[in-house]
Amino acid sequence: MKISPVTKRAFVTAILFTVWLRLSTFLIGWILLSLVSPIPYFVSGMDFVERIPEKSSPLYIIMQPLMRFDALWYKNIAIFLYQDSPQSAAFFPLYPLVLRVFLLTGFTFEQGAFVLNTFLVFLVFFLLYLFAKEEKGERTSLPLVTMYAFFPTSFFLLAPYAESLLLVLLIGLFLLLRKKKYFWASFVAALAASTKPFAIVVFLPLLYTYYKSSVNLRNFLPRFISLFLIPLAYIFSTFFQDSMTGVPFSSIKAQNFWGIKYTLPWDLITAEWNYLFSLGYTLPNHVNLFLATSGGILVVLSKRLLRTDIWILSLLLYLVFTVTSTKYSMVPFFSFSRYALILFPLFLSVVSFRIQPTYKIMYLGASVLFFSLYFALFVVGLFIA
């Protein structure tokens, strides 16, 4: 089977940027582990912090800086399958179940997370390259991957978080749609709905695509039926959590534990601005507010830049991220800079604009600075996103 030049370029690009991300997190983590001793382990509300790798582990320098916050919950789920902490049902099962496969084959959690997330990051960059090529031409592929890899919170893709798996699935399903592999697109969307609860919104853009691409009812019906794999996967995930925790509706009750609440998008934006001007808060708050505001503008501008199904998904995800907050969020949008990674189509919109080289250099320089600062704060135990 002959490999196309585009695929080769995508492969090399993905390798280079995966190495960049691993090396940068390693160097920053190594410096902090050398200068700050001991690194604080405590994370509010978690009683299993002792499972962070010990110094005797050969992966200590690589994985210890990444074992923070949600990573500890995913480790707990991979080991105990929700059985010792019903509140962990707020995290959907596909990602920790994949890591559990590594545990069952003799890997430690850290070893499995290192292998899995490194591979997933490679796939994210590889698929992003192909996605840009399919949507806007190959001239946008390298700029898109570069912008994405240098984004200030891209280190979350290497952490034992589910974002990297979700991104592989979301990008992959749009590539499948381009090739008119409708059943497989529905199947991949179902896997996405088992990875993060909010991913169930992919049902609507797929419904739109299947309807628009069908010439008659005979074409549409099997595609429409395949869509129900998505809610079925969602329901199966919640039933699995209930069976493991022994708590009915454990996912909903876990959301209550985390104090998840929903409001109107403009209410959160107003609250964030008031918070900013009344208390000044910290750099992450400024950045999150900027990203949430500029993200809303980009969603509007992207209406004419993106395919309709991709734009619908971007709009729905943006709305989900801007109507949701938790009692642990010190400000309304305190996780938005991490969620921005899921809005990968908006990155494609940005690189579609004609931008002067000077501004591109400024972006890369600012991104490296914010990336280093954010990861350093994350390593020392401060909640970033």
| Spatial gap, N to C terminus | 43 Å
Please provide the ordered H/E string of secondary-structure elements: HHHHHHHHHHHHEHHHEHHH
Structural class determined from secondary elements: mainly alpha
The number of domains = 1
Low-confidence stretches: 41-51
Classify the helix fraction into a percent range.
Answer: 55-70%
DSSP helix count?
18
- Compute the gyration radius: what is it? 21 Å
Instruction: Please tell me the overall pLDDT.
Output: 85
How does this model look, in words?
With 385 residues, the protein is mainly α. It has one domain (5-249, 355-379). It is built from 18 helices and 2 strands. The protein has helices at residues 5-35, 60-63, 70-80, 94-104, 109-136, 141-149, 163-178, 182-193, 203-213, 217-226, 229-245, 250-257, 265-279, 283-301, 308-323, 336-339, 344-352, 357-379; strands at 261-262, 324-325. It has a two-stranded antiparallel ribbon. The longest helix has 31 residues, at 5-35.
List strands and helices in order, with pairings.
Elements lengths: L4 H31 L24 H4 L6 H11 L13 H11 L4 H28 L4 H9 L13 H16 L3 H12 L9 H11 L3 H10 L2 H17 L4 H8 L3 E2 L2 H15 L3 H19 L6 H16 E2 L10 H4 L4 H9 L4 H23 L6
Antiparallel strand pairs: 1-2
